[in-house]
Amino acid sequence: REPSAAHLSMGYCPQSDAIFELLTGREHLELLARLRGVPEAQVAQTAGSGLARLGLSWYADRPAGTYSGGNKRKLATALALVGDPAVVFLDEPTTGMDPSARRFLWNSLLAVVREGRSVMLTSHSMEECEALCSRLAIMVNGRFRCLGSPQHLKGRFAAGHTLTLRVPAARSQPAAAFVAAEFPGAELREAHGGRLRFQLPPGGRCALARVFGELAVHGAEHGVEDFSVSQTMLEEDQGKDEDTEEQKEAGVGVDPAPGLQHPKRVSQFLDDPSTAETVL
C-alpha cells in the first residue's frame, strides 16, 4: 500500500555492478547515504563504516573503475547496506570473487543477520546457501520446486553420508579396497595424497553405527590413521542427480519407442511435491 515507505526499508545489490567508474568507493557510499536521507553530519561516518565492513578501506579513494571484479561486488554489497535497511536483497553477491574474498563477504553478511536484519540472496552455489541461509527455496524455470531449512532439504534429498579417511600415501589402495569390501556401494570421490573421500549410500551395511564400528576395530589394520563422517552436502547430491537426469534426457542408456517425444523432466532433487517441512 505504501511502496515508497517499503523501498526505504530495502537494500538491493544487482547481479551486474551498478557503479560509476569515475567515482571512488567513498564517493559512492556518500552519494547513496545522502540519497537515502542520512543526516549530513553522519554521511562521512556511514561511508567509512560501510567501507570497513566490506574490507574496502584500502581502496576507498581509488576510482571504482580500477577495482577488481571481487572488489566491485563488495562495493555493490556495501551500497545495499547503506542506511541499515531492514531487508537486503542480494543477486549473486559473490560472483567473480576468489575463495578468500567470498568467505570474507559471507562473514560480513552473517554479521548483518545477527544485527536483526533479513537478507535474501540468489545464488548458484549450494555451498554458499548452506553457509548463509536459514531457509532455502530452489527455483526451476521460474517456479519454486522445494522450500525448507538446509537440514530439512538434506534429510529429504541428500543421499547417504561422506566418509573421509586419512591414511599414509603408500597405503591408499589397501584402505580403499577395505572400504569397498566392507561398505557395498561406497564410491570413491576424491583421492589426494593420504586423503580419501567416499560417498556412502544410506542405510544397510553403510549405516552409521556399522561404519564407525568397523573403522574403529579394523581401520588401523588397513592404514587408517583417522576418519570422519559427515552428511552429504546439497551441492554434491544435486550435481550427481542432475548428471543422471542429463543422461536420461540425452537418451544415454535409454531405448525410447520410435516416434515418441518425452518431455524434459525436472531433476528429482528439485521435485518435491510435499509441502511438509521439518522445523529445526
What does this protein structure show overall?
The structure is a single chain. The protein is α/β, with parallel strands linked by helices and 280 residues long. Among the domains are: 3-122, P-loop containing nucleotide triphosphate hydrolases (Rossmann fold, 3-Layer(aba) Sandwich); 160-231, Lrp/AsnC effector binding domain/regulation of amino acid metabolism (RAM) domain (Alpha-Beta Plaits). Helix content is 41%, strand content 18%. The protein contains ten helices and nine strands. It has helices at residues 3-8, 25-35, 40-53, 69-81, 99-114, 126-132, 150-157, 172-182, 208-218, 234-250, and strands at residues 10-13, 87-91, 118-122, 136-140, 143-148, 161-166, 187-192, 195-200, 226-231. The protein has a four-stranded antiparallel β-sheet with strand order 7-8-6-9, covered by helices on one side. The protein is elongated and about 70 Å long. The two termini are 34 Å apart.
Overall strand count: 9
Radius of gyration: 24 Å
Question: Could you give a short account of the major beta sheet?
Answer: 4 strands, antiparallel
- The assembly state of the depicted protein chains is single chain
Q: What is the topology, as strand order, of the major beta sheet? A: 7-8-6-9
Q: Write the CATH fold name of one domain.
A: Rossmann fold
Distance between the ends:
34 Å
Please, what is the CATH homologous superfamily of one domain? P-loop containing nucleotide triphosphate hydrolases
- CATH architectural designation of one domain: 3-Layer(aba) Sandwich
**Structural class label:** alpha/beta
What's the order of the H and E elements?
A: HEHHHEHEHEEHEHEEHEH
pLDDT < 50 stretches: 239-280
Tally of contiguous helical segments: 10
Mean pLDDT: 81
Helical amount among residues, as a percent range? 40-55%
Query: How would the global form be characterised?
Result: elongated
For the record, the CATH class of one domain is: Alpha Beta
Strand content: 15-25%
